[in-house]
UniProtKB/TrEMBL annotation:
It comes from Mucilaginibacter gilvus. Keywords: Membrane, Transmembrane, Transmembrane helix, Transport. This is Cation diffusion facilitator family transporter. It comes from the Bacteria. One of its GO terms (cellular component) is membrane. The keyword RNA-binding does not apply. It is a multi-pass membrane protein.
């Protein structure tokens, strides 16, 4: 989480430094693409603040109304960030682009645009490099896309996607600003704004998909489920693990429920001791499993329940 916050702070500083200059440059040069980039930077700045808020609120201690803690606050605010990128970043940029394609405006001196865009690429590029390094430390040797899907900490890849979209958008705007002035085609400036908006919409869709999955209660992987099942069934008093239910409460906390069939000749005290032993074993092996609920159930009940389903 600390490494994620490093990339968030870097992105926040970069966006804050260039947002105002983009708006000033866009106003002086009458460039829709620059205004769209200014909106993009403002949205990214607000997004970083939302992510920091989500991280802060997710660390609140459990209480009577939230007995498993507030970890999912991070997933909620990550989802809000993806909607912000879509609605404000992508939506306004696309609107600006279409408006300036339909009704192009006379372009002003592009010199300030080139200066601001060059500085923006430096700042955003530095932020992107930091985000890539932080994400690479987290993912290790895991392939990039698989690491994004597997990650349970959206703050680790949200900033990375934001910065990548920002750098791509800046290069598109710089190329289109040059073309629009070089060939006197004012509508190309609107095309740049439209392309930036489309990039943001695609990025927001990817981020919303991942954040939604976590917010809706994503569980542990199949491999982890199988390993837990083998471990529990290795206990001499367990006949069968009948169900494994899990959900991530936060990137570092998993709620696990095991429905277990114990040997029929065990009394209540023996079952309670077995439950305590299994709970300690699972929590010792899997650091992220903070809550383990074990429910005894007869094997006959499990068979009857499955027969009823079919």
């Amino acid at each position: 989480m600390a490494s994620s916050k490093t990339s968030i702070y870097a992105a926040l500083i970069a966006n804050l430094l260039i947002a105002v200059t983009k708006f000033i440059a866009g106003g002086i040069s009458n460039s829709a693409a620059m205004i769209a980039e200014g909106v993009h930077s403002v949205v990214d700045t607000v997004n970083e603040l939302f992510l920091l808020l989500g991280i802060h609120r997710s660390k609140k201690l459990a209480d009577a109304t939230h007995p498993f803690g507030y970890g999912k606050e991070l997933y909620f605010w990550s989802f809000i960030v993806s909607i912000m990128i879509f609605g404000l970043g992508g939506g306004i940029s696309i609107y600006q682009g279409i408006a300036h394609i339909i009704k192009p405006e006379e372009l002003g001196d592009p010199t300030i645009n080139y200066i601001v865009l060059s500085l923006s690429i430096v700042f955003e590029g530095a932020s992107l490099i930091i985000a890539i390094k932080q994400f690479n430390q987290i993912r290790g040797t895991t392939p990039f896309w698989h690491a994004v899907i597997k990650s349970k900490d959206p703050s680790s890849f949200l900033v990375l996607f934001e910065d990548a979209a920002a750098v791509a958008g800046l290069f598109i705007v710089m190329i289109c600003v040059y073309i629009s002035h070089r060939f006197n085609k004012p509508y190309v400036d609107g095309v740049a704004s439209l392309l930036v908006g489309l990039i943001l919409v695609v990025v927001s869709a990817i981020l919303a998909r991942e954040s939604r999955s976590l917010l809706m209660g994503e569980g542990v992987s199949t491999q982890t489920r199988d390993k837990i099942c083998q471990m529990v069934e290795g206990d001499g008093h367990v006949v069968k693990v009948q169900h494994i239910l899990s959900t991530y409460q936060s990137p570092t906390e998993v709620l696990l429920m095991l429905i277990v069939a114990f040997k029929a000749d065990m009394d209540t005290e023996e079952i309670n001791k077995a439950i305590d032993r299994i709970r300690d074993l699972v929590k010792a092996e899997f650091d992220l499993v903070r809550f383990v609920i074990i429910q005894p159930e007869s094997l006959e009940h499990h068979v009857l329940w499955n027969d009823d389903k079919h």
